[in-house]
Write a structure and sequence with these properties.
Rossmann fold; 160 residues; two-stranded antiparallel ribbon; 38% helix; alpha/beta; 6 helices
Length: 160
């Protein structure tokens, strides 16, 4: 018997986790974000094979993020979150998933409350020290450079 329940959801932050944290702002005010294809493959192809629901909860609001979610088949998206733990609990209730069955990947203090409560915690190598100190796994990659893929593969290898 396993010590922890099987992971059924992977919750991800966007800026600094799925992206490098940079905001590219053009002369006309348009904002661009850079995503890594290796993270996209993990979300679109590996997570469904593992029976894991991808969820994004982010403090910012961006049509770019909504577009990326559509490309990757992510249907559980919360943008403009001012209270990530409350938003997470609402989604988990809808999905009938226990918080201990959640893996969470974040990089900054606004992810801390969620990460303290979930079953598995991961962060990119360039996460803030407070997040690194509670993470079960710190990737070798920085955010936006395949860190999510690395965390997904670690979960798969653990057999969670």
């Amino acid at each position: 018997m396993k010590d922890k329940p099987t992971i059924k959801a992977l919750v991800m932050d966007v800026d600094g986790t799925l992206t490098d944290g940079g905001l590219y702002i053009g002369a006309g005010g348009e904002v661009m974000k850079r995503f890594h294809v290796k993270d996209g493959y993990a979300i679109h192809d590996l997570l469904p094979q593992m029976g894991i629901v991808p969820i994004i909860i982010t403090g910012r609001t961006s049509e770019i993020v909504a577009q990326r979610c559509r490309e990757l088949g992510i249907t559980r998206l919360v943008q403009g979150s001012s209270n990530k733990i409350e938003d997470l609990k609402k989604i988990l209730a809808d999905e009938n998933i226990s918080i201990t069955q959640v893996a969470y990947m974040g990089d900054d203090l606004n992810d801390y409350d969620c990460m303290k409560q979930v079953g598995l915690k991961g962060c990119p190598s360039d996460a803030v020290s407070e997040i690194k100190s509670i993470a079960d796994y710190v990737t070798q990659s920085n955010g936006g450079n395949g860190a999510v893929r690395e965390f997904v593969e670690w979960i798969r290898e653990k057999g969670e």
